[in-house]
Write a structure and sequence with these properties.
This protein is of the alpha/beta class and about 280 residues long. It folds into 3 domains: about 70 residues, no CATH class; about 50 residues; about 110 residues, Nucleotidyltransferase, domain 5, CATH 3.30.420. It has 11 helices and 9 strands.
Length: about 280
């Protein structure tokens, strides 16, 4: 695995640890949070879901506390991800079939290879195929329906959760005298207090301007424990991941097309809030 890929994996692992790194925790709370984290699945860099035992997450936490972000980089064996019980060509075809249609069952995958005369009938055990899929993060079949209702939320303490967002503004004349079709209001909002650490109009909404706004908010009011943003290009930039990793900020992204994930903003605009 090349250094850039190992760094991406380390940043992804840090995003899973999240509150275990950034929150104030008593000793008794750590095990509870580890078990809660282990009960969830996480979308890996290849777009496939992964799950981990709580002891694995505990090891990551100790590694990060001892050695920082570089300690979370993977050190894989040369034969990692292979299944010695399945010939390499057969394994490749199994993985390709599962990626093509993630909802194909293991039984369907085996029958497809048998019909293609890639394996003899009855020679490929379902348990062996399952181990191969687990090794490549393909063991979970995606669900077709949403599993839970999303509602408005808030944070308990100021500084626990800051939301980054942008809004398109009107046409403006720039410092160079050029008329720009629109400007962009880039803001950071503390969810618990409704305080806005920084909000400013820019002529671009690229990563550099978003990160400049975040820098100003941090310099003026301190770093948040969690920074919650959408999947815009500026918010998934490698530079923002690096900044948050170095400052021990949990970078949290809303899901693709998940408007309900902006529940904190809905709460901010509720009648009770407006009447305060």
């Amino acid at each position: 695995m090349d250094p850039n890929k190992r760094r991406e994996v380390a940043e992804w692992r840090l995003s899973i640890l999240g509150p275990l790194i950034s929150a104030r925790l008593d000793h008794g709370e750590i095990r509870e949070l580890l078990e809660e984290a282990a009960a969830r699945s996480y979308i890996y860099l290849d777009g496939q879901p992964r799950r981990f035992r709580w002891r694995t997450l505990e090891g990551w936490r100790y590694d990060y506390r001892a050695g920082g972000l570089s300690a979370l980089e993977p050190h894989t064996r040369a034969d990692a991800g292979t299944c010695r019980a399945i010939p390499e060509l057969v394994a490749r075809k199994l993985l390709a079939l599962r990626r093509e249609q993630p909802r194909r069952s293991i039984r369907t995958l085996i029958k497809a290879l048998e019909r293609a005369n890639d394996v003899l009938p009855g020679t490929l055990a379902p348990s062996t195929v399952r181990r191969l899929l687990v090794a490549h993060g393909l063991s979970k079949r995606p669900t077709q329906l949403p599993t839970r209702e999303r509602r408005a939320f808030t944070a308990e303490h100021p500084g626990d959760l800051t939301m980054g967002d942008s809004m398109h503004g009107p046409p403006v004349i720039g410092p160079d005298g050029v008329i720009y079709k629109k400007c962009y209001l880039l803001s950071q909002i503390d969810v618990a207090s409704r305080f806005v650490p920084h909000s400013e109009f820019y002529l671009s909404e690229d990563a550099a301007h978003h990160e400049e706004g975040l820098r100003r908010a941090i310099v003026a009011h301190g770093a948040p424990r969690t920074y919650y943003v959408d999947l815009g290009a500026a918010y998934v930039a490698a530079s923002l991941k690096q900044i948050c990793a170095e400052l021990a900020i949990f970078l949290l992204h809303a899901g693709p097309g998940d408007a309900a994930a902006k529940g904190a903003l809905s709460a901010r605009l509720s009648p009770d809030t407006c009447n305060q």
